Automatic annotation (TrEMBL):
Any GO molecular function: quinolinate synthetase A activity
Name the record gives this protein: Quinolinate synthase
Essential cofactor(s): [4Fe-4S] cluster
Native source organism of the sequence: Enemella dayhoffiae
SUPFAM superfamilies: NadA-like
Enzyme Commission number(s): 2.5.1.72
Lineage of the species this protein comes from: Bacteria, Bacillati, Actinomycetota, Actinomycetes, Propionibacteriales
Amino acid sequence: MTTTQLDTDRFSTDDEWRHWDATQLRDWQERVRRLADEQDAVILAHNYQLPAIQDVAHHVGDSLALSRIAAAAPQRTIVFAGVHFMAETAKLLSPDKRVLIPDATAGCSLADTIDAAQLRAWKAEHPGAVVVSYVNTTAAVKAETDICCTSSNAVDVVRSIPTDTEILFCPDQFLGAHVRRVTGRDNIRVWLGECHVHADISPADLEQTVRANPGAELYVHPECGCTTSALWLAGRGELPAERTHVLSTGGMLHQARTTRAGTVLVATEIGMLHQLRKVNQHTDFRPVNPRAACPFMQQITPPKVLRSLLEGTDEVVVDPDLAARARRAVERMVAIGRPAGGE
């Protein structure tokens, strides 16, 4: 494929790229990496991105880990293949760098469940409460937050807050319920938000898949609607507790590197399977719900990554005053302890 063909493809509105052969894909990868070098850019891809984009990226991981990599990277431009709040978080931690997202309309159904005005109103109803917000929120929400958390350190963040202090936890109701269950605290008020992809990984999906795969291990992301069901099955003995793991995406990768299980059932967005299979080629990783694909993540396509490098689109800008307030909430989380797994 020639450079001209690639440049034409980047404006394509159809799925022609899905039919590229191995040579065309390799030419695209080489072109993207060459442009990144020329633009002094580092390409970051979230674990839920399309496999081709994960494979061309310099770094793959969860949003917070990638934002930290961005801040430490020597490159002056960051191309963040993920959804918009992730690129915003990278900008918070790298205010002096240019941050690009290949499609600025790639949103997040979870982040969209609460905005800054709603959070301010909720805070007004509960004066004195501490606001704990998941990193899967906009910069404007982080600016109204006391301390952020990830799915791997949410319990530690909550435990750092005095037990007699009311907590407003947002926006994910399933993660909030998990934290309340683990900590035993009844003064945690949880916002009723959800990631529609994780919420659709249902208890019925889980029970059916578990019963069809006896002896398998289970990795469940705490954003899933089936988390409680997984623990219930483990409690009943239908799935031994030692084979049931509620994990962040980073936690899943760590567990995958060390497991000796023949089969692992995975309850999270299916893009995660690509990384799990790369770190462990001896285990059969199977999705609990094979339809759990995030349409917003999949808005970032190979042609759009190329276009971002060629044209500098789409640049992420965060108001400096808002960014300073939002950054404090992230820094307070980091001061408690470095999250091991991220979201």
